[in-house]
Write a structure and sequence with these properties.
It is a single chain. The strands form two sheets. Strands 1, 2, 3, 4 and 5 form a five-stranded antiparallel beta sheet that branches. Helix 4 packs across helix 5. The protein folds into two domains: 97 residues; 125 residues, no CATH class. The two termini are 22 Å apart. The chain is an alpha+beta fold. The radius of gyration is 22 Å and the shape is elongated. Helix content is 32%, strand content 21%. This is Gas vesicle synthesis GvpLGvpF. It holds the Pfam family GvpL_GvpF.
């Protein structure tokens, strides 16, 4: 048997009702293992199996169900312990001093993910008219053709940066903190892939702002997910300086991740 761990909560956190099914074959019911001031949301299964998209969606659904009862710090997708005693001994006990304060700091806070893509053809249609490359016949020389292609790519990248900065200018006033979830700035990178930390009360206003963005920019493909536990803000909910700092960060740097893990991982897991 294996114990799959989804996230850490405070010990008084209500168990999700009705208990959702977990991951694995057969899927066990998600329940809380309580130890001291903390609890871990887990399920027991005979076979974890191969973790794919459907399991990731179930993992996310479980986290959202937990979030309805209070703050939760997600563990990495696919985190597994040998038994519930190991969860208490190796996960909850070492975190008993520091983790309650982190959870308290996330009270009333949620995370929202926004991913914005633009079709390359649409971008080229916008950047080429009026550019110095209009009417230029590509040279037969390979190096010249490569230089021309790079110059056009630079125009597209500059356009995406302007778009990303405009989106962040629109949404940042509604958020407490924000940070990039993926690298930006390459020809194949998105316009924006960003995480925002908000108070519960600000979610409706943020939803409305994203809806306005969809209407104003129909050429964007927008994926908007949340509310989520503060996955990207788990270590410092206020947002450390650097790539995630709202005052200085632009849209072109940094990476995200799925879930939180301690420095003393003793279980096996799979990153998404």
């Amino acid at each position: 048997m294996s114990v799959i761990i989804y996230g850490i909560t405070r010990s008084g956190h209500p168990a999700p009702m009705p208990p959702p099914p977990g991951i694995g074959h057969p899927p066990g019911q998600v329940h809380l293992v309580r130890f001291g001031p903390l609890a871990a949301a887990v399920s027991v299964t005979a076979d974890v199996g191969i973790l794919g998209e459907s399991e990731a969606v179930r993992h996310l659904d479980i986290l959202q169900r937990l979030l309805a009862g209070g703050p939760v710090l997600p563990l990495r997708f696919g985190t597994v312990a040998p038994d519930e005693a190991a969860v208490c001994r190796e996960v909850l006990a070492p975190l008993a001093d520091e983790m309650p304060d982190r959870l308290d700091a996330l009270e009333g806070l949620v995370e929202l993910h926004l991913d914005v893509e633009e079709d390359e053809r649409s971008a080229l249609t916008e950047v080429l008219p009026g550019s110095p490359f209009v009417g230029v016949t590509p040279s037969a020389d390979l190096d010249a053709r490569i230089r021309l292609g790079q110059q056009v790519a630079d125009l597209v990248i500059a356009r995406r940066q302007r778009q990303a900065d405009a989106i962040l200018d629109l949404l940042r006033p509604l958020a407490l903190s924000d940070r990039p979830r993926r690298p930006h700035g390459g020809a194949d990178d998105p316009v924006l892939s960003w995480a925002f930390l908000l108070r519960d009360a600000a979610v409706d206003a943020f939803d409305a702002a994203v809806a306005d963005l969809r209407r104003a920019c129909p050429y964007f493909t927008i994926e908007y997910v949340g509310p989520l536990p503060a996955i990207d803000f788990a270590e410092d909910p206020t947002g450390p300086p650097g790539a995630g700092d709202t005052a200085d960060a632009d849209a072109f740097g940094g990476t995200g991740r799925w879930g939180w893990s301690s420095d003393s991982d003793i279980w096996e897991g799979n990153d998404q």
